[in-house]
Design brief:
The chain is 66% helix and 17% strand. It is of the alpha+beta class and 421 residues long. A 4-stranded antiparallel beta sheet has the order 2-3-5-6, with no helix packed on it. A hairpin with an 8-residue loop joins strand 2 and strand 3.
Length: 421
């Protein structure tokens, strides 16, 4: 029996040593997530790519300028026959050479304002990436803080379990000593041993769950996975008002912003489809030089230097109804995006009321459980005295112990669930 008590005392010592880790505050968790979270870092890169893509050149609003050059060489046996009575010529190894170089400019003067729509679309893509970054940050922070609060709640439950193990150890020791004097039976001693084992395993299981939560938090913070820590159980006082929460959610919710931008994107898609109904006008110009030398023929050398320009107009007449279909599809996409926006607006309102009701409910539960814990502690104290006097059974004493543990657990869960809400 002494070895059994020492074994469970060893478990308790290990539990206490586990709590000697650094204290990590919730603000440190948020700062770590914002700085090192991998999802946020990826979203930041995507936002920068979208930002750099916003340019008039990418939208087709600027001309393209290119320098081209080339050269050729040939060596052939050439036979030439001329009109007008000129004698034929037969040249062996006639060498022909040539080269050219030019500076060319191409510019689409008009394309149904599609280039302007493309530029606005690039700007919208940047806004979407910014909103997606904000949504990624919100999700990462909410997930990390939720896990932190779960870990804090579990830490308090572990403290309650440690007290329960301590009480069970004292109970086992008392019964073991009393059995030697005939006060308690072997059955009561065996039951006390079972109770201690149950409490100790519950403590071990909870500590294992706590480590798993801490590993998840460390991962979200982008730091060493096994860097275990203690959580700060002191919660800042909160004074919330429903109207303020609802107004803030509607004005700054990232999901609503995303839905609104998607509606704008559908409008741009319609503009791009309508642009295909207009003619396109392309301007080309170049300035260059060319030279060629011929080993046979009437013209033995030719050199050109000068400017050239052209204007091309393309008017769409018929394309099988593709443009009309694209416009109708864009209009349907706009209608769908409007529905999605209304849905998200109503969903945000619903979630605010859900969270508000949960917050109010958990506050009431906390107030009730604090009173209940006082009663449970008093009940356990009186049950302990009654058990010593033989007025109640070990089962009744055990029930008083479990009632106190359950009250502590409910209080801890309610306290942090209310904060999460």
């Amino acid at each position: 029996m002494r070895k059994t008590i020492l074994f469970f005392m060893g478990l308790l010592v290990c539990s206490l040593s586990f709590g000697q880790a650094e204290v990590l505050k919730i603000q440190q968790v948020i700062d770590g997530v914002l700085k090192n979270n991998f999802s946020i870092q990826s979203a930041v890169v995507e936002e920068k790519v979208a930002e750099r893509s916003v340019s008039k050149g990418n939208a087709g609003l600027l001309p393209s300028v290119a320098i081209t050059s080339g050269g050729n060489y040939s060596n052939n046996n050439t036979e030439l026959r001329f009109a007008g009575g000129i004698d034929p010529a037969n040249v062996q190894g006639a060498v022909n050479t040539g080269y050219n170089a030019s500076l060319g400019l191409n510019y689409q003067v008009f394309n149904g304002f599609a280039n302007l729509a493309n530029y606005r679309n690039l700007q919208l893509q940047h806004e979407l990436s910014e909103t997606q970054l904000r949504l990624t940050i919100e999700n990462a922070v909410v997930t990390a803080t939720g896990l932190y609060l779960d870990a804090t709640s579990l830490s308090e439950q572990i403290q309650a379990l440690r007290e329960t193990v301590k009480i069970s150890q004292e109970q086992l020791k008392r019964i073991q000593t009393g059995r030697d004097y005939g006060t308690y039976t072997s059955q009561q001693a065996l039951q006390a041993k079972v109770d201690l084992h149950t409490d100790s395993m519950a403590l071990l299981n909870s500590e294992n769950q706590l480590k798993a939560l801490q590993r998840q938090i460390n991962f979200l913070m982008g730091r060493e996975i096994t860097n275990y820590f203690q959580t700060d159980t002191s919660l800042p006082a909160s004074s919330l008002e429903l109207d303020g929460i609802l107004s803030g959610a509607k004005s700054s919710n990232a999901s609503l912003s995303l839905a609104s931008l998607q509606k704008d994107q559908a409008l741009i898609s319609k503009s791009l489809a309508q642009a295909n109904r207009y003619p396109t006008v392309n301007l080309t110009s170049s300035y260059g030089l060319s030279s060629s030398q011929n080993g046979a023929g009437i013209v033995l050398e030719q050199n050109n230097v000068g400017f050239a320009a052209g204007l091309n107009v393309s008017i769409p007449v018929f394309n099988g109804g593709k443009v009309t279909t694209a416009i109708h599809n864009a209009e349907l996409a706009m209608k769908k995006s409007e529905i999605a926006l209304k849905q998200n607006q109503l969903l945000v309102e619903k979630e605010v009321y859900d969270y508000w009701e949960a917050y109010q409910y958990q506050r009431e539960v906390v107030a009730m459980e604090k009173k209940n814990i006082e009663l449970a502690e008093l009940n356990l104290k009186r049950s302990s005295e009654a058990f010593k006097l033989g007025q109640i059974t070990s089962i009744e004493y055990r029930q008083a112990q479990l009632n106190l543990l359950a009250s502590n657990n409910r209080l801890s869960k309610a306290k942090y669930e209310g904060t999460k809400a």
